[in-house]
Write a structure and sequence with these properties.
The structure holds two protein chains of two kinds.
Chain A: H1 3-27, H2 32-58, H3 72-85, H4 91-122, H5 126-159
Helix pairs in contact in A: 1-2, 1-4, 2-5, 4-5
Chain B: E1 2-3, E2 30-31, E3 33-35, E4 46-51, E5 60-66, E6 69-75, H1 88-93, E7 107-110, E8 113-116, H2 119-136, E9 142-146, H3 152-166, E10 171-173, H4 175-178, H5 180-190, H6 201-204, E11 207-211, H7 215-218, H8 220-231, E12 237-241, H9 247-251, E13 254-256, H10 263-276, H11 282-288, E14 289-290, H12 292-300, H13 304-311, H14 315-327, E15 331-335, H15 337-340, H16 345-358, E16 368-371, H17 378-384, H18 399-409, H19 425-434, E17 439-443, H20 447-450, H21 454-461, E18 467-472, E19 484-487, E20 496-499, E21 504-508, H22 521-532, H23 548-559, H24 571-574, E22 579-580, H25 614-620, E23 626-627, E24 646-651, H26 667-672, E25 677-680, H27 682-688, E26 695-699, E27 704-711, E28 718-722, E29 761-766
Parallel strand pairs in B: 1-2, 9-10, 9-17, 11-12, 11-15, 12-13, 14-23, 15-16, 17-18, 18-19, 24-28, 25-27
Antiparallel strand pairs in B: 3-6, 4-5, 5-6, 7-8, 7-19, 20-21, 21-22, 24-29, 26-27, 26-29
Helix pairs in contact in B: 2-22, 3-17, 3-22, 3-23, 5-16, 10-12, 10-13, 10-14, 10-16, 19-21
The chains are: A mainly alpha, B alpha/beta.
Chain lengths: 161, 768
């Protein structure tokens, strides 16, 4: 049984997603909805990590729950850079690039949840399955938001000016 | 008929004398009249049919004219909306039309200063810049930001010009600030915009709930109807949800005062109580809705004690409200900005729809629901597509809807942007800030006072390279930042129709000529279309109408067969009184405009705003039922902290409308509320050492406001600042900051994109 590995892999993907969300938010702090939503979604990813940690304990393993890049001097520098850059049209192109990265992270996390759900069913672990069915929709929600935001932002970034 | 003295003091008593009535009875008439000094009704030369434009209630009135000037108003006894009554803003606000500082000539900025110009010069400047940008940067370099105060015919014309003439995705109204959540909540639940209820539901209801709706001040005549039921036999139970002790809260049997940002927690607990106590109509839910299992799962853990601790409202009061709602037989609910402009706006407003669906209380007398509007003609921006929808409640994500519209307009479907949700106002200003929009035409609204975080908005509007056109009747704070100012005619000076918050359409006649060279907004738009040379696919002029009546006829065709069908409503008929589209109530048969082929929207994820794909919607709701949508409470993005320990919320007062451009020019209204104030709770005031009447500074991370303190009407932890006050009559922001939006945060609801003026942290200190 490698369920502990599947949990660790999912946790790693969620942690990286949370990190990326926070960084993208800081880089685009002048895009107010991006700033707020990335933080909300990062909190949700963090909540998923807490649930994963509890599951990991049952399988005798431990996972790292702390996002690495949030806050502090680096964040302040990123936000300042965003303010300076935020008044230029190129900000739209940078946002598209960052959303792509975010989409890939969310995709990876989502796939990890799919694998974990399959494992939970094969192992007949109802508790684990229930946790996955609570948490995975939140990751999918982040994934869909990145798609929506690309749809909304691309016309202006690519075809105006 | 009950006729009230023409000079009754409606400042001292804004709601006037009571005319009580019982359930199922006819609301008695009471005709309110206000004429210029010394004038009697017999001396008036002529009366011209219209309705009020200083709120969304749509109170029918006649405009009195003597010697070519407006000299007063009289409520229409025969109209279904008001039975003759008028609110104080209507009784006095007409005086603004005659104000000596009306704009009477176009202004063009030369060498940094606005100077008078001819219409030709001004329009040439606008057209030249439009064409340059179209050629150099494309259609999405141009944006239009309109109002909730123009007429239907004007919005429809603007929608055609912007969408198919210019071809830009950037057209929105300031209705985004007041009514976007109402529209979105209706779309999410019923698949389509359209107010289910009717004002006449008040005549029948046994329980009335006002959610975040200070109806006493925002729709004074609607409140009179409620008070008259309350004063009659078998009065309805009244429930108020509002953090402030408003006149509605004073009157209510149950007043829930949740902390700002906690509406969803409260609503989820109320719904949990309804389900747990079996106060739901299972048969109705089964036959007419989808999504019950998810909703039940979502609220299952939302115990009343949990909500009580989050909202800081006693659990017993939440239970009492749930019982009153759950055991009512005729439930009438209204919702407004306390929900729409607060955290988790759409998903909270949707829960009120859910209450009515769970109880099976829709479309019958007394069983109604109004997701209210703030501004008088907000409904029409939504209907005509001037607010970020397609005309006629068409679905921009449904190719066949776009094709139908393209046929009506005789253009290629590709000419109508429908690749994404039309750009909302806050994003339009963000693109202006970025520089990818180089032209913004602002009609009949004042973003330099009304948008959040004014320091930022002033910078955006003054940005080099942004060409700003302002079309208005006064030199507003926004007009002062414009490159071209176009003087417009207003209510009473032009013809057109508009629709209130219960779908009642009124005709507003031209009573007098506009001052100087001012022109009807419709004529300005038509002039622009002509000069731009917009054509359809046969190279004929794109805009095929020439005046309000022919514009209305075109709209009748565009709306034919859609939910907001005007094809049977004619100007001639409207001269006999207001008429509702869709009949008195919608959805009485439990059938909705939500079938996948029909619906205005496939819906969104309410937490992030991500749209559902058409196939997902089709599998969710193949039979066109109502949709029960759920959501979890999450904390607001900005909560009180050590530095900013209080919440600040903004809102309206009964005496003023919007940014006071008209009501400031009515002496009685100005005297009633001449300057901004900040309302504090008794506890907070004592802690801060602030007494009633002291000057205080309210500070947020965005800015500060200096205002007189009023003690007692807010709940603890909450500061209220009215949003009407700006700078054109005060000496400017540098002398004394007083616009509430100096404080507010740039944030909007993920689904409705409505700015959130009622979440944000602040601190208060006494000024010496």
């Amino acid at each position: 049984m490698n369920i502990d590995l599947a949990i660790e892999r999912t946790a790693e993907a969620e942690r990286e997603l949370a990190d990326e969300l926070l960084q993208v938010g800081e880089r685009h702090s002048t895009e107010h909805d991006v700033f707020d939503l990335t933080r909300s979604r990062a909190q949700q990813a963090q909540a998923n990590l807490e649930r994963l940690a509890a599951a990991a304990a049952r399988y005798g393993t431990e996972i790292d729950r702390e996002p690495s890049a949030a806050g502090g001097v680096v964040a302040a520098v990123r936000e300042k850079a965003a303010e300076l850059l935020g008044r230029r049209p190129e900000a739209g192109l940078l946002l598209l690039a960052d959303l792509e990265q975010l989409h890939l992270r969310a995709s990876r996390a989502s796939l990890a949840w799919v694998a974990l759900a399959q494992a939970a069913q094969a192992a007949k672990d109802a508790e684990l399955l229930s946790m996955v069915s609570d948490c995975h929709p939140e990751t999918l929600r982040t994934l869909r938001w990145t798609t929506q935001k690309v749809k909304d932002s691309a016309p202006q970034a690519l075809a105006a000016g | 008929m009950h006729r009230v003295e023409a000079r009754a003091d409606r400042i001292a008593d804004p709601w006037g004398e009571r005319t009580p009535y019982g359930p199922g009875g006819e609301w008695p008439e009471r005709v309110d009249v206000q004429l210029a000094e010394e004038l009697t009704e017999g001396e008036v030369d002529s009366w011209h049919r219209s309705a009020s434009v200083l709120h969304s209630n749509g109170d029918a009135l006649d405009i009195a004219v003597k010697d070519g000037r407006i000299v007063g108003v009289r409520g229409r006894a025969d109209d279904r909306v008001n039975h003759g009554r008028l609110g104080p803003k209507d009784l006095f606000g007409w005086q603004a039309n005659n104000s000596p500082d009306r704009l009477t000539r176009p202004l063009v900025r030369r060498d940094g200063e606005l100077a008078e110009a001819s219409w030709d010069d001004a329009m040439d400047a606008v057209v030249r810049r439009s064409k340059e940008l179209l050629e150099q940067k494309g259609a999405n370099a141009l944006a239009f930001y309109t109002s909730g105060q123009l007429f239907l015919e004007e919005y429809y014309t603007l929608a055609l010009i912007a969408r198919a003439g210019i071809g830009t995705n950037h057209l929105d109204g300031n209705t985004r600030l007041c009514t976007a959540t109402a529209a979105e909540a209706l779309k999410e639940t019923f698949g389509c915009d359209g107010q289910p209820g009717s004002y006449t539901d008040i005549d029948h209801a046994d329980t009335i709930v006002h959610y975040g709706h200070n109806v006493a001040e925002t729709q004074a005549v609607l409140w009179q109807r409620v008070l008259d039921r309350r004063g009659g036999p078998y009065p309805p139970t009244l429930i108020c949800v509002d953090p402030r002790r408003t006149p509605v809260a004073e009157e209510a049997d149950i007043h829930l005062a949740p902390l700002p940002g906690t509406n969803l927690a409260l609503m989820n607990a109320l719904i949990q109580e309804l389900i747990a106590n079996g106060w739901i109509d299972r048969d109705y839910v089964e036959r007419h809705t989808v999504g019950f299992a998810e909703l039940a799962k979502q609220v299952a853990s939302c115990r009343t004690e949990w909500a009580a601790s989050i909202c800081d409202v006693p659990a017993a009061e939440i239970r009492a409200a749930a019982e009153a709602i759950g055991t009512s037989e005729r439930l009438f609910s209204t919702v407004l900005q306390g929900f729409y402009q607060s955290h988790q706006a759409t998903v909270s407003a949707v829960q009120v729809n859910n209450v009515h669906l769970l109880r099976g209380m829709l479309g019958r007398p007394g069983c109604g629901l109004l997701q209210m509007n703030g501004q008088p003609t907000a409904q029409n921006t939504r209907e005509t597509g001037a607010n970020g929808d397609l005309p006629g409640f068409r679905n921009w994500a449904n190719e066949s809807h776009v094709e139908e519209l393209a046929r009506i307009w005789n253009v290629d479907p590709l000419e109508i942007p429908h690749y994404a949700d039309p750009t909302h106002a806050m994003q339009i200003f963000r693109y202006c800030e970025q520089g990818s929009i180089g032209f913004v035409w602002i009609s009949c609204t004042n973003p330099a006072v009304s948008l959040p975080q004014l320091g930022r908005i002033r910078d955006v509007l003054a940005r080099d390279g942004l060409f700003v056109v302002v079309q208005d009747i006064f030199l507003t704070e926004t007009a002062e930042l414009a490159d071209v100012v176009l003087p417009a005619a207003t209510w009473g000076e032009k013809e057109g129709t508009f629709t209130n918050a219960d779908r009642t359409v009124h005709l507003s006649e031209k009573a007098v000529d506009p001052p100087g060279e001012a022109r009807a907004d419709l004529d300005i738009f038509l002039d622009y279309a002509g000069r731009m040379g917009f054509t359809d696919r046969d190279r004929e002029p794109l805009v095929k109408w020439t005046d309000a009546r022919s514009a209305f006829a075109a709209w009748q065709e565009c709306s034919r067969g859609r939910p907001c069908d005007y094809s049977e409503i004619s100007y001639d008929e409207l001269r006999n009184g207001g008429r509702q589209w869709g009949g008195e109530r919608l959805y009485g048969d439990g059938r909705f405009w939500s079938h996948p082929d029909v619906c205005e929207s496939y819906g969104k994820d309410l937490m992030t705003g991500a749209a559902l794909e058409p196939v997902e919607y089709r599998s969710l709701n193949p039979d066109g039922k109502a949709i029960l949508k759920a959501g979890a409470h999450v904390p607001p993005h900005e909560s009180p902290s050590d530095d900013y320990p209080l919440c600040v919320i903004t809102g309206r007062t009964i005496w003023h409308f919007h940014t006071r451009t008209k009501t400031r020019r009515a002496p009685e209204l100005h005297a009633a509320a001449p300057d901004v104030w900040a309302e504090l709770s008794q506890e907070d005031a004592e802690r801060l050492g602030v007494a009633d009447g002291d000057m205080v500074a309210v500070e947020s991370p965005r800015g500060r406001v200096e205002a007189e303190a009023r003690i007692g009407s807010s709940r603890s932890g909450v500061v209220f600042v009215p949003f009407h006050f700006g700078y054109w009559d005060s000496g400017g922001v540098d002398q004394r900051p007083r616009a509430a939006n100096e404080l507010t945060r740039t944030e909007w609801d993920p689904a409705s994109k409505q700015p959130l003026y009622k979440v944000g942290a602040c601190r208060v200190r006494k000024l010496s």
